[in-house]
Amino acid sequence: MIFKHKVAIVTGAGQGIGFEICRALANEGADVILNDIDGTVAANAARHIIDDTGANCIAISGDSSDSALISKMVATAVEEFGKLDIVVANAGITLFGDFFSYSPESFFRVMQVNLGGTFFLAQAASNQMKNQASGGSLLFTSSVTGHQAHKDLAAYGMSKAALEMLAKNLVIELSQHKINVNTIAPGATITERTSGDPAYAETWSTITPMGRPATVTDIANAALFLVSDKAKHITGQTLIVDGGWTCISPPPF
């Protein structure tokens, strides 16, 4: 129960990586605020975690880039549990598109969610953690596409690389308040979304040095380390969890 008496917010957590991070935190004793844009998905996910772990898990649905929702999540953590220790800014969207015809609407939506949502959640959480004077941990979800070019993902990869620079920059702002900030960069991962493609696992097993894509548990294990007390002297870093793919980077086609 390494997160007993800790309070966490996780965005984009109705399913996939975010859900597994929530479940793992709760299983280790944390009280969790679970966010997803879909209210039904969020409520079902929170109920599943409560039934599975017996921990406190509150669902808050809505767009993670909305400033009012960000304020609500932080306020709920404090009102319900008295403090905020951990934030995992996991929500993000992927809008594929050819660079030559990529629309302004798609570009700015990706930036709003992936960058704006993370930036302003980190800001709100850091202000709360600073006022508590007890420190805290922030974790941003990047991607291997922030390290290696991927066709039709120029805007997405750009946003993920920017998150890693944000974590580096915030070291200057947050260290004196005992807040560490890091980034995790998953590679190909089996989730509800990717498992719908029968060729996904086979393709990524072939081109990943470790012989398989990641599971959500692989990513959650790394995430929990970075927000734990065992990693308090690690800050401004990115941990790539991709089975070695970025070392050789063969394309999945």
Assign the CATH class.
Alpha Beta
The H-level CATH homologous superfamily, spelled out, is NAD(P)-binding Rossmann-like Domain
Tertiary shape: globular
| Named CATH topology | Rossmann fold
Proportion of beta-strand residues = 15-25%
Question: What's the oligomerization state?
Answer: single chain
Overall helicity: 40-55%
DSSP helical segment count: 8
**Which stretches are low in confidence, meaning pLDDT under 50 for 5 or more residues running?**
none
Provide an overview of this structure.
The strands form two sheets. The protein has a seven-stranded parallel beta sheet, sandwiched between helices. It has a two-stranded parallel sheet with strand order 7-8. The mean pLDDT is 96. Helices cover 45% and strands 16% of the residues. It contains eight helices and nine strands. It has one domain (7-244): NAD(P)-binding Rossmann-like Domain (Rossmann fold, 3-Layer(aba) Sandwich), CATH 3.40.50. The longest helix has 29 residues, at 104-132. The radius of gyration is 17 Å and the shape is globular. By secondary structure, it is an alpha/beta fold.
